[in-house]
Design goal:
binds flavin-adenine dinucleotide; 10-stranded antiparallel sheet; 12 helices; Uridine Diphospho-n-acetylenolpyruvylglucosamine Reductase, domain 3; alpha+beta; single chain
Length: about 450
């Protein structure tokens, strides 16, 4: 089945409810299991839920087709397997904080929001977070998940070392300093090299952040001052519905240093918000992290959404496209022209920046990037008609899709965008010679002939 048909078929199963509680041992397919958004029903016959890292080598060795499963926040079939999914939800401990090396080692299934408060209490921080703290560390890193900030690489750039178990049961550890190419190939790996058990992340002295929001930025200001606007804070996000020649909200997250002063009420023609806002302005801001310039720890300001609350809208689909940052304004203007077509299916769009990295399969490989994100209404029949049009508009600008969201880009085009793909395929063969980690997603993208 072609990728488009596959996604279409699976979206026919949409039900919008959350997973039922799961039990410890392997589960049979009769229990319908969905991803976080409820738009995709996993097809795997069995769900395994190991309680400890020590169980992994024997488990993966004995299983045939298999796939690690994180916190289920991807919108496509990347985390599925025809036979076995292995949930990492119980691999959720802090292993150690190494104050000398300035690193934290965690079990791979832990969610950022679960260990960030302890890290802060010990005086440390990560460099950045995604819009939500609810996602697993390994799941985020293998798909190139990112936050914003012109100088901030995606979340994988904090990875100093990885421990994973190949489907043959071999335990492999790769270090950024020692393992050069293999490390650069292995971090953003789309779930194709093994089950990551432990991740070592760089940490730094903890820091305080304030977020100041502005509303109704004239599009002309964005065109003329894109770089200044996106550089006006440590992490800056724009939210837009592509209507009225304006950006509806700007979220500026600044690290609070001694000389951090209040911002003026007028920011390139946008006005300072006078109340807390949800990115979708009509929704209550109760689920959002604190705003109006109130300082708080990094982990309670860098994400837009609070741990313990539903992030974003809940019943939604998502797509996201990266282009080199030098093409940002042209790419944004190309999408702006499609505003009337996009708006009926849209909940909100977000524009962020990500610094270049060295990971072969990262959409930001060796290029500073801008990401144009779409939170869609859960209406796949219509959204799937729009994606090829958006992809066509963005193609002159070197578009690459987010691996964990919905896209329709042709496999050949996709493959041509990754200059290290051949090396990556060789790497996956080294670690998974029998192809036990293959699934429909990988067959339709990186392995498609
Ligand atoms: C509301 C919402 C907001 C989001 N915001 C952002 C955002 O701000 N920025 C952004 O870039 N993305 C964002 N995303 C997308 C999300 O971050 C990614 O889809 C991410 O991959 C989710 O991690 P997960 O653990 O849920 O992965 P899953 O969906 O569970 O799995 C994703 C992939 O990771 C693999 N995997 C998981 N665990 C392991 C492991 N231990 N070892 C090896 N492979 C593993 C799986 O096999 C699969 O291939 C958002 C998603 C949602 C639902």
């Amino acid at each position: 089945m072609k990728r488009k048909e596959f996604l279409k078929t699976s979206s026919a199963l949409v039900a919008g409810s959350f997973l039922s509680p799961l039990h410890h041992s392997a589960q049979s397919k009769e229990m319908v299991r969905k991803n976080w958004a409820g738009n995709y029903t996993y097809q795997a016959e069995h769900l395994h839920e190991p309680r400890s890292v020590e169980e992994i080598p024997a488990l993966v060795k004995k299983l045939e087709l298999q796939k690690p499963l994180g916190s289920r926040h991807c919108f496509n079939n990347i985390a599925d397997s025809p036979l076995n999914q292995i949930s990492t939800q119980h691999l959720n401990q802090i292993v150690e904080i190494n104050e000398e090396a300035k690193t934290i080692k965690v079990e791979a299934g832990v969610r950022y929001g679960d260990f960030a408060p302890e890290l802060h209490r010990r005086g440390y921080a990560l460099h950045n977070l995604a819009s939500l703290p609810h996602i697993s560390v390994a799941g985020a890193c293998v798909t190139g998940t990112h936050g914003s900030g012109v100088n901030n690489g995606n979340l994988s750039t904090a990875v100093a070392a990885l421990e994973f178990v190949t489907p043959e049961g071999e335990v492999v550890t790769l270090h950024r300093e020692k393992d050069g190419d293999a490390f650069n190939g292995a971090v953003v790996n789309l779930g194709s090299i093994g089950l990551i058990t432990k991740v070592t992340l760089d940490i730094q002295e903890t820091f305080i952040v304030r977020q100041d929001l502005f509303q109704e930025l004239p599009l002309a200001s964005l065109q003329d001052h894109f770089d200044e606007i996106m550089s006006s804070g440590y992490s800056v996000s724009l939210f837009t519905d592509w209507l009225n020649d304006q950006v509806s909200q700007i979220w500026i997250k600044r690290r609070v240093e001694e000389d951090t002063s209040d911002m003026e009420d007028d920011f390139y023609g946008a006005q300072a918000a006078t109340r807390d806002l949800h990115p979708i302005t009509r929704l209550s801001a109760e689920h959002c992290t604190e705003q109006l310039g109130v300082p708080g720890p990094w982990y309670e300001r860098l994400p837009h959404f609070k741990m313990g609350f539903t992030p974003s809208s809940g019943e939604e689909l998502q797509s996201e496209y990266f282009v080199p940052r030098r093409n940002a304004v042209d790419a944004i203007m190309a999408i702006e022209k499609m505003g009337d077509q996009i708006f009926p299916q849209l909940l909100i769009s977000e524009i962020r920046t990500i610094a270049a990295d060295s990971f072969w399969m990262s959409p930001c490989y060796q290029q500073d990037s801008v990401a144009i994100h779409f939170t869609w209404k859960q209406n796949w029949a219509e959204v799937q008609k729009l994606l090829p049009k958006i992809e066509a508009e963005l193609s002159p600008y070197g578009v690459r899709p987010h691996w964990g969201k919905l896209f329709t880009l042709d496999a050949k085009v996709l493959q041509s965008l990754y200059e290290k793909l051949a090396d990556f395929l060789q790497l996956t063969k080294t670690y998974d010679p029998q192809g036990k980690l293959r699934n429909a997603y990988l067959n339709d993208t990186i392995y498609a002939a």
